[in-house]
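S2.1 Query sequence (CBS domain-containing protein)
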Amino acid sequence: MISKRMEKMLIEDMDSLVKPANEVAVVGTSNTLDHALLLMTTNKYSVVPVIDEKSKIKGLISMPVIIEAIMDIEDVRFDKLGEIKVEEIMDTDFPVVTMDFELEDILRMLVHTAFISVVDDDEVLIGIITRQEILTGTNRIVHNFERVYDVKDREAERV
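Output C-alpha cells follow.
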C-alpha cells in the first residue's frame, strides 16, 4: 500500500491527475483509418481512445494496428485507409478505471500502457490518466524529498 504522505507528494491533487475527456484526442468507432491517422499524426500520438456516438469508450487505436491493417504480403496499401473503419481493427483489451480508483492500481497499469481511460458507470469517457502525469509527480519527489522530510539512514542508527 502506498503511504498517504508519498501519495500526496506524487499527486498534488487527485482531480488534476485525470485529464478531462474534452481535452483528449479521440476518434469515433465509425471513423475511417485515414481520419484516425490524420488525428494521431497531427497531435503526435501513437495511440488514442475510440468512443461511440454516446461517448462510451469502445477501444484504442494505435499506429501499429493501423499499419498492420493496411499491409499485405508485398506492399503497404495506403488506398485502404479510407475503406477500413476504426471499429473493425481497434484494440478492445485495454485498462479502464472509474473515479474511485486506487493510485497503487494506476501505477501498476501504467507500467504497460501510456494512459488509462477513466469512465463513469455507463462507460462514458471522463478522461485519461497518463504516464506523463505520474512521472511528473515522481520528478517532484526526487527533487524535493529531502527538502520536505528529514531522511536518516537506518543502518547508521544501528551502529
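The beta strands are 19-20, 27-28, 47-51, 57-62, 96-97, 115-119, 125-130. Residues 4-147 form a domain with the CBS-domain fold (CATH 3.10.580.10).
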